[in-house]
Write a structure and sequence with these properties.
Number of strands: 9
Distance between the termini: 40 Å
Bound molecules: adenosine monophosphate
Largest sheet: 6 strands, parallel
Number of helices: 10
Length: about 280
């Protein structure tokens, strides 16, 4: 694995790789890597000649200063995981490599996707995600981009970003969510959970599996009410629990023939967790 701190050096390396006819796959991350990230990298390495990973804790996507300050940093273990997962090139930029002095934030027209669910509860978050991903893509210019279903809405936002920036030629592969044995979705933020909170956090997965088991048996309104009650009684402050059209995330009142996804964002202690599950 080769480590790059400078964008220009990585771009030159990748230009060379491409002239040799090799394919480039890319897994952007914020570090504190876990098995979910590993799954993305393994698939990337299986499908592409050169697997590139970036670790950049993007300040522009944090709408909460404490969340940014407390974001875990485990770079030594991350390097080991990356080596074991087949990563070829690691991009570890400093902030000014992504946002050079005088950087003027762009404004992306993300439409209604930015006003619902995560967009509603984390104002500015997706604009921040797009600033970093846009810049990272201009450095790496991959054939294939690997994203986790864990961040369902973010996957849709990044697809929109590709369309907005004329990068429709990049293939997006969405990798299923890796979970702990308990069902808790792997997340870098889980590192901050106390053992008690970790036990309680399984309620998110249990709620999603409850919704999936009962989707054809109860009304959506009843399901959401019961799910909300269970999350609250498990100690969560709930930002949202939603059942939405899996294609565009619009709210659904009835299933009819739609493919639907359940999405939850909830906070325990001061740790905000998100998860989702396709229901049918
Ligand atoms: P992050 O480091 O949280 O920004 O995540 C980097 C990438 O890993 C994103 O595409 C995430 O959706 C993906 N990811 C995060 N958690 C998981 C998980 N449990 N399973 C699969 N992919 C994940």
């Amino acid at each position: 694995m080769i480590l790059f701190k400078k964008a220009i050096a990585l771009s030159h390396k990748l230009d060379k790789v491409r002239t040799e006819g090799k394919t480039v796959g890319f897994v952007p991350t914020m570090g504190a890597l876990h098995k979910g990230h590993e799954a993305l990298l393994r698939i990337c390495k299986k499908e592409c000649d050169v697997a590139v990973c970036s670790i950049f804790v993007n300040p522009m996507q944090f709408n909460n200063a404490a969340d940014f300050t407390l974001y875990p940093n485990t770079i030594e273990q991350d390097m080991e995981r990356l080596l074991a997962s087949g990563c070829d090139l690691l991009f570890l930029p400093r902030k000014d490599e992504i946002y050079p002095e005088g950087y003027a934030a762009k404004k992306y027209d993300l439409g209604y996707l930015e006003t619902i669910l995560e967009g509603k509860y984390r104002p500015g978050h997706f604009q921040g995600v797009c600033q970093a991903v846009d810049r990272l893509l201009s450095v790496v210019n991959p054939q294939t981009l690997y994203l986790g279903q864990k961040d369902y809405q973010q996957c849709m936002i990044i697809k929109k970003l590709l369309a907005l920036t004329g990068r429709e030629n990049i293939t997006v592969k969405i990798v299923p969510t890796e979970r702990e044995e308990s069902g808790l979705a792997m997340s870098s933020r889980n590192l901050r959970l106390t053992p008690e909170q970790r036990d309680k956090a399984v309620a998110i997965y249990k709620t999603l599996t409850f919704l999936k088991a009962h989707i054809s048996k109860k009304s959506i309104a009843d399901l959401l009410k019961e799910g909300m009650g269970f999350l609250k009684s498990s100690g969560f402050d709930v930002d949202y629990i939603a059942i939405a059209d899996a294609g565009d995330l619009s709210a659904v009142k009835e299933i009819k023939n739609k493919k639907v996804v359940a999405l939850i964002a909830a906070t325990i202690g001061n740790i905000r967790l998100i998860d989702n599950m396709l229901l049918n």
